[in-house]
Amino acid sequence: MPEIHIAGRQLSLPPGSNLLDGLLTAGVKVPSSCRAGHCQTCLLQNSQPLAPDDPASSSLSPEQQADGWLLACQCQVSHDLALTHFDPQHSALPAQISGLTRLADDVLELRLQPRAPLRYKAGQHVSLWLDENLGRSYSIASLPQEGELVFHLRLYPQGAFSQRIQHMDNGQTLYLSGVSGICHYDPEWADRPLLLLARGTAVGMLHAVARDALKQGHTGGITLIVWQRSDASGYWHQPLTEWAAAHPGVSYLTTNDNSGDQLLRQTGLVPRNAMALVCGSPAFVERQRKPLFMSGLARRQILDEAFIGSQ
Ligand SMILES: Cc1cc2nc3c(=O)[nH]c(=O)nc-3n(C[C@H](O)[C@H](O)[C@H](O)COP(=O)(O)OP(=O)(O)OC[C@H]3O[C@@H](n4cnc5c(N)ncnc54)[C@H](O)[C@@H]3O)c2cc1C
Ligand code: FES
To answer: Cα of 60 to ligand 2 centre, how many Å?
Structure first.
């Protein structure tokens, strides 16, 4: 059986078994959240790089792969591994909290001042770490030239990160790692209609994508549609209404799960040459595919990001 060396321990795990499950069952602490290869909180470093097509590392950057990083949740054990934990204090970028504002009872705006400039595009996501055991993915709702990094965080009553972050103060330090994600503006879309579909806290990052598009001279028109649980539950409605009114070529609409499909089928709302960015819960993202396909969009015209949380 393959042998796993980690944190001074040596374990034997059955070939083909899941590395994250095996380590947790053996009592080795490994942070995790999505278990789907998206959040990068289960990063471990092997002493050797894995094969380039190994699913445990194929979604990581070439630099991460060359350094032997792998995602434990995506790793099927097949050979011996000598592993080290990811240490955010050593390998991630420190950032000080510069603002914590409630946008709704269960939504927190977090502002961070990174210690060094971070290379990212509005709409991409990072792992935010409170310590070596607690990291979560959040999407960036700011533009690089704005200096501060902004995030919209849904607060869950049982959420480990939710419960700690809301009691932190300005000046305290978090750590950022793993900028990734495809839901960002591409200047090649300049003259194409841009359709942004958001549910819940995804409104923050898609509004940042829209602002980025305008900054880069987008001329094809922008439609931001926000799905709300009910008329009363939408946060940030007033600022978005004012922002849309101030920008010719921008439309801002709200809808809900009952009428959203119908809205998307309205003639002219989804032009055939549009680019659609869809972000929110996994169920929401999945549900929008059909009406978008029915409106004539091809797969390559739809980019999505599912906010997968812990189960
Ligand atoms: C690529 C990516 C980008 C993301 N961007 C954002 C973002 O910008 N803003 C944001 O608010 N979230 C975002 N998320 C989701 C966020 O990372 C998770 O919701 C996270 O698990 C919350 O951490 P927590 O410690 O507060 O809750 P956890 O301790 O992880 O979970 C505790 C409990 O809360 C509930 N819960 C947690 N997350 C979810 C969820 N997503 N859906 C339903 N129930 C849940 C479950 O009951 C869970 O058992 C993103 C996720 C991914 C993968
Ligand atoms: S990538 Fe492994 S838990 Fe999210």
So the answer is: 12
Query: What is the CATH topology of the domain spanning 3-86?
Result: Ubiquitin-like (UB roll) (3.10.20)
Structure tokens at 275: 């680019």
Is residue 46 predicted with pLDDT exceeding 70?
Answer: yes
- Domain 187-306 falls in which CATH fold? Rossmann fold (3.40.50)
Spell out the domain ranges in the chain: 3-86, 89-180, 187-306
Find the 137 Cα to ligand 2 centroid distance in Å.
9
- Predicted confidence (pLDDT) per residue in 162-196, tens digit: 999 999 999 999 999 989 999 999 999 999 999 99
- What CATH number has the domain spanning 89-180? 2.40.30.10
C-alpha pair distances (Å), 110 with each of 40, 100, 148, 237, 304: 20, 5, 10, 18, 23
Q: Do 76 and 19 meet the contact criterion of CB atoms below 8 Å apart?
A: yes
* Atom of ligand 1 minimally distant from the CA of 202: 8
229-246 per-position pLDDT tens digit:
766 667 889 999 999 999
Task: Please write the tens of the pLDDT for every residue from 94-119.
Answer: 999 999 999 999 999 999 999 999 99
Residue 248 has pLDDT above 90, yes or no: yes
Residues lining ligand 1, CB < 6 A? 33-34, 38-39, 125, 136-139, 151-154, 156, 158-162, 201, 205, 281, 305, 307-310
Which strands sit side by side in the sheet containing 69-71, from one edge to the other?
Answer: 9-12, 3-6, 81-85, 43-46, 69-71
Ligand 2 mean position to 126 CA, how many Å? Answer: 12
Ligand 1 centroid to residue 301 C-alpha, Å: 26
The single-letter code of the amino acid at 146 is E
Which ligand approaches the C-alpha of residue 20 most closely?
A: 2
Question: Over the stretch 203-217, which tens digit does the pLDDT of each residue have?
Answer: 999 999 999 999 999
